[in-house]
Design brief:
Elements lengths: L1 E3 L2 E3 L5 H16 L2 E9 L3 E9 L2 H5 L3 H13 L11
Antiparallel strand pairs: 1-2, 3-4
Protein name: Lipoprotein
């Protein structure tokens, strides 16, 4: 953040970083995300965890490409600099 006596404004974010942020949001709109961790160690024995995430864009049935384009526009005021990589 850049701050002055009159107030603070956020530091600008590069178009490439905005694309990355918005691609993450668009990927989440494709379906549930998550992971499973399982392991063992000598101190505690076995352990595991499960993590599942569902975005409101997915629940609403929004098109991931639309989510990406809208996200970029809201953050930059312009259209995306490149198509999203949703792999």
């Amino acid at each position: 953040m850049v701050c002055a006596f009159a107030g603070c404004t956020p530091a600008p974010v590069s178009p490439e970083r905005v694309a990355e942020i918005c691609e993450d949001r668009a990927r989440a709109a494709q379906g549930p995300t998550g992971g499973v961790t399982i392991g063992t160690n000598s101190r505690t024995g076995g352990f595991g965890s499960v993590e599942i995430g569902v975005s409101s864009d997915f629940i609403s049935g929004r098109d991931p490409i639309e989510v990406y384009a809208t996200c970029v526009f809201e953050r930059t005021g312009t259209t995306p600099i490149r198509p999203p990589d949703l792999r």
